[in-house]
Write a structure and sequence with these properties.
single chain, about 180 residues, alpha/beta, Rossmann fold, 5-stranded parallel beta sheet
């Protein structure tokens, strides 16, 4: 089983790299799956302008960048989405990346690790509505990191409870993904 850890910010001096490394280090201790970071910045995705809806494109896209993104997502059985919250919502680049594909997401599992002024919880609530459109199954566990108290010039300064939260999230995601694959 392969789980993609989607680093969903493409901004300069983004905090998501710290979060992705933290998630990856905990994922390495989680049995039952291989984990791979999918850094959205490395895919250079264009804005979705294709006349063909991604859900109807049969995994054949106009852009080589989208085709590469499609292959990376398609190779995964589930995902941990690392999402910042921008202006009380989802980040545009990550929304575009999700919208650029169709069947690659369908029926797969997803868990959310968010960060922002209020932990990124509003972005995750929007993501839960968005991924439902792809019939994705989201785990209820969530890690919501506080931008102003858990990040500083030295990196992450996480609350003690975060260790248990990330373990519970990863365990739930692996268990759910296994159950879906067995079915």
């Amino acid at each position: 089983m392969k789980i993609g850890i989607i680093l969903g910010s493409v901004r300069d001096s983004r905090k998501g790299e710290l979060v992705a490394e933290w998630v990856r280090s905990h994922a390495a201790q989680t049995g039952g799956a291989d984990f791979e970071v999918l850094d959205l910045r490395e895919f250079h995705l264009p804005l979705l302008t294709s006349a063909t809806l991604p859900s109807m494109a049969n995994r054949t896209y106009d852009s080589p960048e989208v085709t590469r993104w499609s292959a990376a997502v398609d190779a995964c059985d589930g995902f941990v989405m690392i999402t910042p919250e921008y202006n009380h919502g989802v980040p545009g680049a990550l929304k575009n990346a999700v919208d650029s594909l169709g069947p690659e997401w369908t029926g797969k599992t997803i868990a959310f690790v968010s960060y922002g002024a209020d932990g990124g919880v509003r972005a995750v609530e929007q993501w839960r509505q968005i991924v439902a459109n792809f019939h994705m199954i989201d785990v209820r566990h969530q890690v919501a990191l506080q931008l102003f108290t858990e990040f500083d010039q030295h990196g992450l300064q996480l609350q003690d409870r975060r260790e248990g939260e990330i373990k519970a999230l990863l365990d739930a995601l692996v268990t759910l993904t296994n159950r879906l694959q067995a079915a």
